[in-house]
Design goal:
The chain is mostly helical and about 280 residues long. The chain is built from 14 helices and no strands. α7 crosses α9.
């Protein structure tokens, strides 16, 4: 019996691990811009003993700052998930005067310096501001309270949800919605069962980006909040206060905890997106 002489060509190790130039540039850039700074933070936090790390990370003022930062950021991201979807829907599906102006204004928090954003919010929501003066007789104070922190997080994270949803909404075929209506589905049923499923990955991405931005915000919140511990002090301001006191270990430990909690929440959102894609298949 004839035996074929064709054999697979062995791959040399230097060819197997060959990296193209785009790969090399990508890895080099990410190493200097992302991996090394994060590694430096972890190494600096590792200089304190585990007992001291735990004591700093779970001190009452740190726990209060985590609570204000993460709970308020989650609530802001949830509110923007609803209203950001509504705004994106209106901008994509309706034509109205000044549409382009309003569409461009969505990006204002991207371009506005955070300190200017804080000054703007204080001028509007303080007790003498346009909106704050209307809320003050009702006993509602926004500026220099935790509510002001939430308003600042809403302001800076809104564009992430709107800009993530707009391209997906533009690609959705309206004929599918009309087919659902012709089969007797109501508008709410059509949105829930036809429109929302393809929007979910983009919506989760926008919410995750907005949440991350809200957790890391400093410039506007330090102006619109009173920055008093156990009231409206966020973790980023607490880190800065520790640095002003030359407590570098304390600042590093709190920053490490902030980074780890943010990573856990983002991993959870990514797992939810992966589960959703598998369910769709």
């Amino acid at each position: 019996m004839a035996v074929s002489s064709t054999r697979p060509v062995p791959v040399r190790n230097n060819q197997r691990f060959h990296l193209s130039w785009p790969w090399r540039i990508t890895i080099t850039y990410m190493t200097f811009m992302l991996f090394l700074p994060v590694a430096a933070l972890f190494l600096r936090a590792a200089t304190v003993s585990p007992a001291e790390f735990w004591q700093i990370a779970t001190s009452p003022i740190a726990l209060s700052a985590y609570d204000v930062t993460f709970i308020t950021a989650i609530m802001a991201a949830s509110v923007n998930a609803v209203f950001g979807t509504l705004i994106a829907w209106v901008l994509v599906r309706y034509d109205f005067p000044l549409k382009r102006f309003i569409d461009a204004a969505i990006d204002l928090p991207f371009a506005l310096p955070t300190a200017v954003a804080g000054l703007t919010l204080v001028s509007v929501y303080s007790e003498t501001g346009w909106i704050g003066s209307l809320l003050a007789p009702l006993g509602i104070r926004v500026a220099f309270t935790r509510l002001g922190v939430g308003v600042a997080m809403l302001f800076i994270s809104l564009p992430f949800v709107v800009r993530s949803l707009q391209p997906v909404l533009q690609e959705l075929d309206i004929d599918v919605e009309e087919a659902a209506w012709s089969l007797g589905a109501s508008r709410i049923q059509t949105f829930w069962r036809v429109v929302l499923p393809p929007l979910l990955p983009a919506l989760l991405t926008g919410v995750a980006l907005g949440f991350s931005r809200a957790v890391g915000e400093y410039g506007s919140i330090v102006i619109v909040a009173s920055n008093i511990a156990f009231k409206d002090l966020i973790a980023s301001v607490l880190i800065f206060q520790r640095l002003e006191q030359y407590d570098y270990a304390g600042a590093t430990v709190i920053g490490t905890v902030l980074l780890l909690i943010s990573l856990l929440i983002l991993v959870g959102i990514n797992l939810l997106q992966a589960w959703r894609r598998r369910y769709e298949v």
